[in-house]
Amino acid sequence: MRGMIRTVLGDIAPEELGVCDAHDHLFIGSPALPGQELDDPEAALAELKAFAALGGRAVVQWTPWGMGSRTERLPALSRQSGVRIVSATGMHQAKHYDPAELERRHGGLADLFIHELTDAPVKAGMIKVAGAYHRLDDHARHVMTAAAEAHHATDAPIGVHLEAGTAALDVLDLLCGTHEVAPHRVILGHLHRFPDTRIHRQAAEAGAFLAFDGPSRVNHGTDWRLLDSLSALADAGHAQQILLGADTVTPSARSDADGPGMPFLLSGLRPRIERELGLDLATAIFVGNPARAFAARWRRP
Ligand SMILES: [Zn+2]
After folding, report:
1. Residue 106 has pLDDT above 90, yes or no
2. Distance in Å, CA 55 to ligand 1 centroid
3. Could you tell me the pTM of the whole model?
4. If 177 and its partner were Cys, which of 21, 69, 173, 195 is the partner (CB 3.0–4.6 Å)?
């Protein structure tokens, strides 16, 4: 059986994915970030249309369970914009949830993830989890253990929020060492926030996908290292493992506000990568790599 990518409108062959923003958000909200919610469907549609106008064909929303992913809105947004959307299940850091709700869900996370991947009206196509700062706390270990179980039951890929880009190797130790998830089914996110090229190289040598973010106000301090990080990985033979997303998490970060938002991936970043690092690498990052990273041999327990 070949791998398929699970979009909100159904499973597609990897070659149908096209130019992909591999880590982003149309909807997200957290009690830890009051007033910064992405919850406006019209604004989400406008951003998708702006991305599509530049040739964008797919967006992966890494908003996990319980953080306002508005999954029920995604099929209509996908139809209206012509952009394929992959949504996520999984769980973020504990601070993003009501403690009583976390307590209620504690023992049933793997079943919850499996349900959202295989049975929900709009199915998720990946499992999102999160580490802590330079370490994995008890919550992160518990959620990653459940994610590994759900991965083994469904074959869904696992995307990881690395806090400030840190603890990449600890995540691989736990998911791949302890829980035997194949490294190429793990996508490490936010690595550009911690531009330690030695760690990037070690994570790539382990076999994981490495997801970098486009520039943003919050990551301004490390954004200028992005092309150097990509180039170092490509030079070391890891061009096939790099992904890029805009990771838009607040209304002010969208292209109709203070930007740069989703469209800048294609209007600003891709031309620079093509010019400075080569067309082949740009095509791998935006088309070939996401098609492999998000494809799964879907099954149910
Ligand atoms: Zn994100």
Report:
1. yes
2. 22
3. 0.97
4. 173
Q: Compute, in angstroms, the gap from residue 112 CA to the centroid of ligand 1.
A: 20
Distance 126 CA to ligand 1 centre (A): 13
Closest residue by Cα to residue 24 from 75, 79, 80, 83 = 83
Question: What separation in Å is there between the alpha carbon of 249 and the centre of ligand 1?
Answer: 7
DSSP output for 129-149: EE-BTTB--HHHHHHHHHHHH
Pairing of strands 209-213, 242-245: parallel
Task: Give the Å distance between the CA of 110 and the centre of ligand 1.
Answer: 21
Q: Which two tokens stand for residue 293?
A: 């990273």
> Measured in angstroms, how far is the CA atom of residue 297 from the centroid of ligand 1?
25
Give the integer Cα–Cα distance in Å for 56 and 263: 8
Q: In 8-151, where do the E strands start and end?
A: 10-12, 20-24, 58-61, 84-86, 88-90, 126-130
**pLDDT digit string, tens, across residues 211-249:** 999 888 888 989 999 999 999 999 999 999 999 999 998
Question: 67 C-alpha to center of ligand 1: Å?
Answer: 11
Q: If pLDDT is split at 50, 70 and 90, which confidence band does 63 have? A: very high
Give me ligand 1 centre to Cα 188, in Å.
Answer: 11
What value, to the nearest 5°, has the Cα angle with vertex 295 and ends 294 and 299? 120
